[in-house]
Amino acid sequence: MSIRADSNPRFFWRFALIGAVLLFWTGLCFKDALYSYPRDLEEALAKYVELRDSDSLHDWTDLAEENHWPTLPAPLANYSLLKEMGKLDKWPDLAYEHKWEETIPDPATGEEHVREEMEVKIQLQYVMAAVSTPLGLWALFIFFSSRGKWIEADETTIRSSWGEELALSKITELDKKKWSNKGIAKITYEEKGRMKNFVLDDCKYDRPATEEILRLVEANIQETQIVNGLPESVMQAMQEQSQSDDVEQEPANTADTSGS
After folding, report:
1. pTM greater than 0.70
2. DSSP 116-135
3. For residues 191-210, average pLDDT
4. Which domains are assigned to the chain?
């Protein structure tokens, strides 16, 4: 009689969700890089030229904050503000205090600064897309490749849907270090003189069937080959004994309470 554990769709659906979110993010990145930010750059530069020609660069700060455009370089922004306030006589002292060049800031530096900052934003969108695209495709690959996967075992062999097969007699070790917390058990076996691993995972595959396969493996190997954990039969016996002890203690506790 064989035991078959099919892939757990609830586990793999999360990869579909992750992949969809990442590729949606990729789409937003390309939208901003190819349309939104270039449009903002064109509008920002046009507005900058308008303010520069009308000698109104002091209004740029409010516009930049409102439209999420880059701010002007500090020397140019402060010089424009002092000019608007009619206090250019304070410029040498302010420049000296902040260690700026005392020469009058060139408005062209502001236009160049706005362009560079906006182009950095555009390049950043491509970088984020370059990261999210392969991650999203990887997650979707995991989801679609999981469809129809299974592992199966009988009294002599474990086999899988991807063609891996091992004889129980070739098992050298069953490591249960992660079984109690994560439901992962690693089987080490020998094949053609090489040591290989086969992993049982009760999250990726049907849990009851995976647990049955684990019990079948334990029943067909020596107890000394099981490391970092006890056999499931021993664990079950200990649990049943503990429950039996608890049941026996309850009447005694009740009698003590009644007597007092």
Report:
1. yes
2. HHHHHHHHHHHHHHHHHHHH
3. 93
4. 9-146 (no CATH), 150-229 (2.30.29)
